[in-house]
Amino acid sequence: MEILVVCAFAVVAAMLCKTLEVSAREIRLILIIGASAAVFLKAAGSLGSIIAEIRSMFSDGGIDSDYIRILLKSLGICYITNFASGVCRDSGEQTLAEHTLLAGKVALLITALPMIEALTEIIKTLLI
Description:
The chain has 5 helices and no strands. The chain folds into 2 domains: 1-45; 48-128. The protein is mainly alpha-helical. The protein has helices at residues 2-19, 25-45, 47-60, 65-90, 94-127. The chain starts with a helix and ends with a helix.
């Protein structure tokens, strides 16, 4: 049921933004950022149970806890990058939004390097 509240809040904020589109662009941008942050924080608050389940699955499978850290950090990078890119798009800065996404992809790749290295080692041992 919480998703209904979040969706209703987002729709009302979007309608307010649409009415302020021409007359008060500065207020519109502040409203977009505030509403987006509220929705983002509400969603992030629900991640606790998901993270606990992921940790449980990894520990039950005997998988290294460093991989959990990498997975969660990567998930955070994706969410934050998408949020920032969306705000840039809403303010009319398409190029900045695209560059923000590129920076997020690079950060994601850097974060995942230890897993890529481990995967490469596993493949090497299987081939030898």
